[in-house]
Amino acid sequence: MKKEKNVNYYPGRKRQPYVFEKMIKGKRIARCFSTLAAANAFSKKFFANMPSADTAPLYFDASARATYAKIKEICGDFDPVEAVLFWKRHGCPKAVSVPGVAECFSAFLQWQEASGRSHGHIRELTCTMRRFVAAFAGRPLYEVNERALQNWLLSFPQLSPRSIQNLWTNTRNFLSWCKSARGWINRVPEIDTRLLPRPEHKSVEIWTLREAAFAMRFIEQNFPAFAPHYALRLFAGLRTSEARKMRWEWIDFEKHTILVPAKDKDGSRVCKTGDDWLILPTFLPDNGAAVFSWLTRYRNAELGERVPAPYTKAKLKISKSCSWKQNVMRHTFATMLASYNCDDGKTILATRHTNTQTLKRHYKGVNQTLEDSTAFFALRPDNGQLEFKI
In the structure, what pLDDT confidence band is assigned to residue 5 with cuts at 50, 70 and 90? Predict the structure, then answer.
């Protein structure tokens, strides 16, 4: 006779050598039998009474299992799981009080806006989670389980692995908020992330020394009002959103320090990491002489939201001679700094990375000579290093 699932034979046990063993939520369930037939019969009955993976949010105790068996007898061919879900929707007061997926996400979005998150973050979150709301619209939030989430994430072959990872990250953050802040669900469903497609880490695209000099010289000659903005991005490593919200009062020309606060006076978010960021002279080559030379030269220019970056006429014209990809200026800064510094700690502090993995994965793989990186941080306004005919 063939053994059923989870039935093991132990010859050392003389009276009851056949043991049914099963681990459920870290708890071991074991039953001993003298014959294989008895163990197989128990195994069949055990798995027949177990709820499927689709009913993960339903918690069955002894009385619930008895109710489940009675419903199965009454319903006949009708799916008892659907009957229990119907009862929870219309007969359970708690289930009635929990809003649907669309209402839950709308409340989550309002909380994000009230927390001062940037408009770009809100727009990205809305576009990303629109797929989640469309897939589970009309269903209570507690019915979203592991299997449904796994199948949903794997149903987008047109998306890149990075987009799928971001989709799962936003979904998990949304479900965690529903559990901790509102108590709409008892637990956050977790999926096996090993089954999701893994993104390939590619080398970043940067400007060469000649391209960086060409870009800054072009901006200097044709768009001098944008020079402080682009100097902060190229020679201090500020992100686009951070450079757009910079103010002159946050720059100390005597101590050569640049403060990027977590929030501005209006309460809108400035730093992506959420903490104040002070750029010290020790983080940058020559005590930040490169960035402060440009800031001092164009100190009377405007700085802040009124600078339309990065989609300006400057970008459109520079991109004809230089490859202008997303974050190319910050990537160029980090790569040149990693080639210039022998201390990874200074590079991490200047770029605000939390560990060396990002530095090794993206920036150290891009070959830049020490001569090029030294010449890069020696670029100054109006010094006649390179002449271009525009």
Answer: confident
> Do 162 and 27 sit in the same domain of this protein?
no
pLDDT at 150: 86
- pTM here is 0.55
Can you give the pLDDT at residue 357?
66
Residues 231 and 346 in one domain: yes
Provide the phi-psi class of 30: left if phi over 0, else alpha when psi is between -120 and 50, else beta: beta
Q: Please state, rounded to an integer, the average pLDDT across all residues of the chain.
A: 77
Amino acid identity for residue 171 in this structure: T
The residue among 253, 97, 76 whose CA lies nearest residue 182 is 97
CB-based contacts of 325: which residues, under 8 Å, 6+ apart? 205
Q: What is the pLDDT of residue 95?
A: 47
Helices (H) and strands (E) counted in the chain, each on its own, are: 17, 6
**94 part of a folded domain:** no
Of the candidates 188, 155, 170, which has an alpha carbon nearest to the alpha carbon of residue 105? 170
> Which residue shows structure tokens 């009862």?
87
On the 0-12 / 13-18 / 19+ scale of CB atoms within 10 A, 185 is buried
What is the residue-wise DSSP string for 141-163? GGG--HHHHHHHHTT-TTS-HHH
Residues 136 and 271 in one domain: no
Q: Which residues of 57-68 are buried (b: 16+ CB within 10 A; e: fewer)?
A: bbeeeeeeeeeb
Using CA atoms, how far apart are residues 310 and 11, in angstroms rounded to an integer? 74
Q: Tell me, what's the pLDDT at 304? A: 61
Q: Is the CB of residue 281 less than 8 Å from the CB of residue 256?
A: yes
Give the number of domains in the chain.
Answer: 3
Higher pLDDT, 353 or 35: 35
pLDDT confidence of residue 360: 65
Q: Is 71 a member of any domain?
A: yes
Domain containing residue 120: 101-195
Dist CA 128 CA 68 (whole Å): 38
* pLDDT for 390: 34
Percent of the chain with pLDDT over 90: 0
What residues contact residue 244 under an 8 Å CB cut-off, 6+ apart? 229, 304, 305, 307, 309
Tokens of 153: 């994430």
Type of residue found at 252: D
Contact 275, 262 (CB under 8 A): yes
